Amino acid sequence: MLVTLLAIARILPQGADVTLDDISRPSRLAGPGEGISDEELALAARNHGMPLEALRYDVTPPGLHYVLIHYDIPAVDAHHWRLRLGGQVRRRVELDLAMLQSLPARTVRVTMECAGNGRARLQPRPVSQPWLVEAVGTAEWTGAPLRDVLATAGLLPSAVEVVFTGADHGVERGVEQDYQRSLPVAEALDGDALLAYSMNGAPLPPQHGFPLRLVVPGWYGMAHVKWLVAIDAVDAAFTGFQHHAYRLRRDADDPGEPVTRIGPRALAIPPGMPDFMSRTRIVRPGLIMLEGRAWSGRAPVRRVEVSTNGGGTWASAVIEPAGDHRWAWRRWHHAWTATPGRHTIMARATTADGEVQPADQAWNRGGFANNAAQQIPVVCLAP
Ligand SMILES: Nc1nc2c(c(=O)[nH]1)N[C@H]1C(S)=C(S)[C@@H](COP(=O)(O)O)O[C@H]1N2
Ligand SMILES: [Mo]
């Protein structure tokens, strides 16, 4: 029914009468048995995930970090680019890249994950970027602490939130907009938020926000505004589109809770070798070292457990220490003796607060913050 209405809306308006509503899609859930559409495929082909074998690296090599871009990568000329600070501040400030780079720099290793990671497996499926579980990556971001940059303008006591505006522009559900997100002042002044001009020791690549992006360690990806051009302190809670878009809602009328910090998750490097089309993992009998990574933007990960029988029984994996990298994933491993037959490998993380990854999905309309434990079907061949 909805699909028919959309099809008619696409045919009817001709020439001068076309509006954004005619071409922009409302949010919707896929119908029973409805496969991934051409439109979702178009998003999936440009917004790529991290191949899970790249979980082997402490820092994700350039080009393997996941990418999510709502509109287009904007054209930015670094020489003319400026960051404007305004709103509830003592003085308006314009900074160029050299000025930002002259402030004391910090480097933070951060695991970033898209809030929509895991969406494609939900039933019913929210129609959007169809991630499985690979919308994650870890990078070393270098830049100026956000609070130091805010101090150049001086926040007024009337400031309650800080709004970040990207140079990218597009339409979403009929609303034309710059990509914008806000942070509460307390969060913005937190020591770890960074305005990053470098990723893994090199200037930001175009797809990751050149020349400057916000990095908010521990928060889901949508908070880390790329291609930053403006920061405005505001005296009331920000109500822009992306604030409403990222909420955990049961249905369209539910005001929902905002999506903020990354839930705990463990992922395994898929063991053995893959079959090209089915992606089924194939192993041979004997000792196999299962390895992976675990992270959380809430309380730190305290335990990782592995199941080799689809969640029937769980065993504790060995986790390596976090070292100086509070906001980065941690490596874990677990020895498994594979026997001929079919197996389902699972991994789950538990935080120091006792939050454990669920076996089943807590469904919400946007398909956000889904951290149900990963399942990897493995076939072990006869010897
Ligand atoms: N300006 C701008 N910033 C943005 C986005 C965007 O579309 N435009 N996408 C956000 C989302 S939803 C995610 S998950 C992360 C992805 O960052 P990455 O592509 O560097 O991995 O960027 C965030 N920042
Ligand atoms: Mo995202």
What do these coordinates show?
This protein is mostly beta strands. The chain has two domains: 2-245, Sulfite Oxidase, Chain A, domain 2, CATH 3.90.420; 265-380, Immunoglobulin-like, CATH 2.60.40.650. Helix content is 12%, strand content 33%. β7 and β8 form a beta hairpin. The relative contact order is 0.15. Ligand MTE binds at residues 65-70, 112, 114, 137, 166, 168, 179, 208, 221-222, 224-227.
Biggest β-sheet strands, sense, barrel: 6 strands, mixed
Report the sheet-strand fraction.
Answer: 25-35%
Q: Write down the overall geometry.
A: globular
Task: Provide the gyration radius in Å.
Answer: 22 Å
**CATH architecture term of the largest domain:** Alpha-Beta Complex
User: Which structural class is indicated by helix and strand composition?
Assistant: mainly beta
Distance between the termini: 54 Å
Q: How many strands in all?
A: 22
- Specify the CATH homologous superfamily of the largest domain: Oxidoreductase, molybdopterin-binding domain
Helix content: 10-25%
H-E string: HHHEEHEEHEEHEEEEHEEEEEEEEEEEE
Strand order of the largest sheet: 14-15-22-21-17-18
Low-confidence stretches: 1-6
Reading off the top of the CATH hierarchy, the class of the largest domain is best stated as: Alpha Beta
The small-molecule ligands in this entry are: ligand MTE, molybdenum atom
Q: What is the CATH third-level topology name of the largest domain?
A: Sulfite Oxidase, Chain A, domain 2
**Overall domain count:** 2
Average the pLDDT over all residues and give the rounded result: 95
Helix run count: 7
